[in-house]
From TrEMBL:
InterPro entries: DUF7962, Glutathione-S-Trfase_C_sf, Glutathione_S-Trfase_N, Thioredoxin-like_sf. Residues 116-235 form the DUF7962 domain. It comes from the Eukaryota. Residues 10-83 form the GST N-terminal domain. This is GST N-terminal domain-containing protein.
Amino acid sequence: MPLDPPVIIFHYPRSPFSARVLYYLALRGIPYDQCIQPQILPRPDLARLGIRYRRIPLLSVGRDVYLDSRLILQRLERLEAGQPSFAARASPEQRALERLLASFTLDTGFFKSIVQVLLPNTPLLRNEAFLKDRVDMLGGGPDFDFADFVLRTRPDAIVEVKNALELLETTLLADGRQWLAGTEAPSLADIEMVWPLHWLLSTPGAVPEPHISARLFPKAFAWVDRFQAAIATAGKSLRAPETLSGEQVIEVLGKAGADKTADVVEQRDPLVQSHGLHQGQVVQLWPSDTGSSHKTVGRLVGLTGREITIEATEADVSVRIHAPRQGFQVSALPQEMANLG
């Protein structure tokens, strides 16, 4: 039976950030459909939704589209579907561990180190279209040699990944526990730490032996294997997602409702006070790190300390686009650029 409101993930195979969300959906038992995207730009399906944001994944719940895996998981925690949310089952200490591990994988250089370790032994580093696309995402100039950068920085990156595995081996996993938070089954803490490591360890030829191996880190490698087995088991009880075309997505979203609980612009917010932002104003929204040159335009619907919500003005169907406050910026769009017809 389709979920109401429908849940659709926009992703491509082997996307590590998408895996973070797919693991969550599997372990919570939340049914979803998918719209497969190209690994590199352009992405016409997203353009039809008025979305210029260029990173993957995105997730729609009804006509609300969520950017950034951090906010996506926060939205799914509030979804009343499948198993109870992880927050409902976690102690304060476990929730603190989840937050700390998420910060480690998302806010430090750890994921960048994973990329630098993994890419040199994959065909992607010899794919000119991929390299050009990633230089655009990183904001590098025409003379930036992405492949050379990855190769030059790989030795230090190997050390960083090795140190992370050693941390797991000698602390959280040292007492023989099965899961990082000491739970009986995988928790959000496991999801927050495993997704970049699983991407590395499951990519043929990517593991830099003898520096990183199951012999050196048996507990950490066994934990990754256990997690993958748990995901496979969870997936067997979840209906297979239907793969939707861009046209089908438009049709589904056109019939879905929207969540208006985020329709609040907090008047005491420093950004609101400083820039005079107000509900209904035409704004542009973009990530402040990678992909910052790709700005999505819409009318400001909500702005709080945690979330920015705009209603797309260039879409084939009315959608609300949500971004986390952390890592994103929003500003008024000059009237002469609004072009709202």
